[in-house]
Design brief:
This protein is mainly α. The chain has one domain. Helices cover 50% and strands 0% of the residues. Helix 2 crosses helix 3. The longest helix has 17 residues.
Length: 94
């Protein structure tokens, strides 16, 4: 199944913000594997290796894209556009 640009964009925003794949899947009404596939094929796949500042920079870039060409998504209307600190299993293991 192909996903719309709006769905992919929304997943990128939620992923960079710090939400888990499971939570994103619930919000997007998808299976976790679908979200994982989209994240894996994105430039943001290695989120755990990014600093909060790097994630915020990417999120700011996506926000600017959204401002110039708004994606019709009720989820994005409620996003704070600020990264959440990663914790627990979201952190990169050494």
């Amino acid at each position: 199944m192909n996903h719309s640009e709006e769905e992919i964009f929304t997943i990128y925003v939620l992923w960079l913000t710090g939400f888990s794949q499971a939570l994103i899947a619930r919000y997007m009404r998808m299976r976790v594997k679908q979200v994982a596939g989209i994240v894996t094929h994105s430039e943001y796949t290695n989120r755990a290796a990014m600093t909060d500042a790097e994630r915020q920079t990417y999120l700011d870039e996506l926000r600017e894209v959204h401002r110039q060409d708004p994606v019709p998504s009720p989820i994005l209307d409620r996003v704070s556009w600020k990264v959440l600190p990663l914790s627990g299993r979201q952190l990169r293991r050494a």
